[in-house]
Amino acid sequence: MASYKELPRTAQIRLVSSHQEVYEPCDDSFALVDALLADRNNLLEHHPSLCMEIGCGSGYVITSLALILGQEGYGVNYIATDINPHAVEVTRKTMVAHGVGVELVVTDIAAGLEERLAGLVDVMVVNPPYVPTPEDEVGVEGITSSWAGGENGRSVIDKILPVADRLLSEKGWLYMVTLTANNPSEICQQMRKKGYGSKIVVQRSTEEESLHIIKFWRDFDIEKDEPNQSASGFIGSLLTHIPLFSLWRGTNSDNKC
Fold this sequence. Notes:
Helix content: 25-40%
Radius of gyration: 17 Å
Strand order of the largest sheet: 3-2-1-4-5-7-6
Shape: globular
Number of helices: 8
Order of helices and strands: HHEHEHEHEHEHEEH
């Protein structure tokens, strides 16, 4: 597993490497890190032993998580996967530059890791391919795979959710980026049937999309397969308003989404 070096208490994430086939941090990445920042006190009290990112891209999110946990996160192990080998290499350089040890695996979601990691992941972060696209764009080589989500943007999300259920520990938390077009209320209801509570930690609208960062956790008070609420009532019950801020500190001030 990963090693740990002394980390600063405040995340200062620098773009130390890039590749034309690797998705660079953008509004969705910033929103996911903002959600982790908003939940920082809970994360510190959570004392995770293993944190995982599925689809690590540039490494911005998993590195930010490590720096958010900071000194209090001593002894935490980090693992990150991506189907794109270029993304894994960029993530490696990002994490090394910030003094974070990580195990990196080139794989589709968590293929080949599920038996080994079953029930061990305490914090999982996912910025999945959520953009509605033709199905034949899903999983193709190169940068397209980082956003192509198929019909309603759900093709990859619906594959990740059961994997997350298998890998998360009893105290495991999942933070996931979703788009309004993904029908986040349906995703939450689907996870509720598996025994998960959920809430929207960050909601953000841009010129192009409306993002929801949802946190899931095992709620042992939920009876599985209980009757559903209406979609509108359910999503309303999830909504939480959080002050927003981002940690991106690019080396190039002109670096934009």
